[in-house]
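Ticket opened by: R.M.
Priority: normal
Category: complex prediction / small molecule

The reporter submitted a protein together with carboxymethyl coenzyme *A and asked that the result be attached to this ticket for the collaborator who will pick it up next week. Submitted input follows.
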Amino acid sequence: MAEGGVQRGLEDVVALESQICFIDGKEGRLIYRGYDIRELAERSTFEEVAYLLWYGRLPTPDQLDGLRTRLAGLRALPEPIERILAEMPPSANAMDVLRTCVSALAILEPAETQPGPSSIGGALRLTAVLPTILGHFHRARAGMPRLAPAPDLSHAAWVLHALRGTEASELEVRALDVALILHADHELNASTFAARVTASTLSDLYSAVTSAIGTLKGPLHGGANERVMELLDEVGTPARAEEVVRAKLARHERIMGFGHRVYKVEDPRATILREWSRKLGQAKGNLRYFDLLRQVEQVVHAEKGLYPNVDLYSGSIYTLLGIPRDLFTPLFAASRVSGWTAHVLEEYQDLRLIRPTSRYVGPIDLAYVPIEKRTAA
Ligand code: CMC
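Result attached by the on-call engineer:
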């Protein structure tokens, strides 16, 4: 809401034109490059969607094969990054690990980081390598040996393999593939904006992604699905949902996984993930999370009229896939990196330094006091 000419949080401010992503917040629609997310989640793969975001059109079979081969060939980490990962304390925040490794990669791979159309090489490299970073970090802290990149696996299958080391079922791979598709882009969200601001200074792609990872780390953007799982721990059984949620609302606490700056109805990603939470829960004989979430959803809607967002059901899917909670947000980054880089490439094509202004509300014309005459406030 505008206060004294200031649009706090830049809410409703149109900052730039883009051909990448459209959100219809009133109708609850999400469009990538003209295609409805529901159709993409039903019919495409993460690699197809990444191609669409980067190149602006769906790939032919040959183009898709080419992209898959290139991504698969870019999964290995340089030795210095492996050493950095080996030195990370097991308690390190996984988003800090991701941010540090991307930043270090920029020093090792300067050719990929130059601003301009050649940055597409860097976009592929970062998308391919983020799951490897996460896999190495997670396996090292758990005392498990690191895995060699498996070039025959799809991106989603590689993500699961890098983290778990076990073979994933077709349903598991597809569940993750859909989650990756749904997280790939979301218009001018905070982390994408941060990436574009960095790129708009003609800084390099890896710096832009480093900014974006730091921005996604905050719980109001990434991280809400972790908190949702903590809420489910607290609720315990569907019968307790009403009591726990009401008590939180009475304390003016936010219920994670609900509400959205842009969607005024249900987030279409939540609709798709709800169905996948049910499907995967049924296949694994564990509908506990799904049942709890349905109950929480009903109470929050009845009490506050709020709708679920993408984070409500995603955590239950990742948990059923055996992914630890602290890797949920890094996994979000491993998908969103495709969108971040598409936006950075777009920014380079139509560059305009992003530099808003602020309304100064501090004093002016204060008399300068020499240091020896100053007293503590
Ligand atoms: N639980 C309880 N109340 C809420 C919630 C919530 N999750 N979300 C909004 N509200 C209330 C808020 O308290 C306020 O009420 P009042 O007017 O009485 O003070 C009203 O709704 C408007 O809230 P707001 O903070 O002005 O709305 P916003 O557009 O800034 O909020 C949001 C967007 C996502 C920060 C907020 O809904 C929220 O904190 N949700 C929980 C965190 C979460 O799930 N984050 C993931 C967002 S989706 C990820 C993505 O797309 O990147």
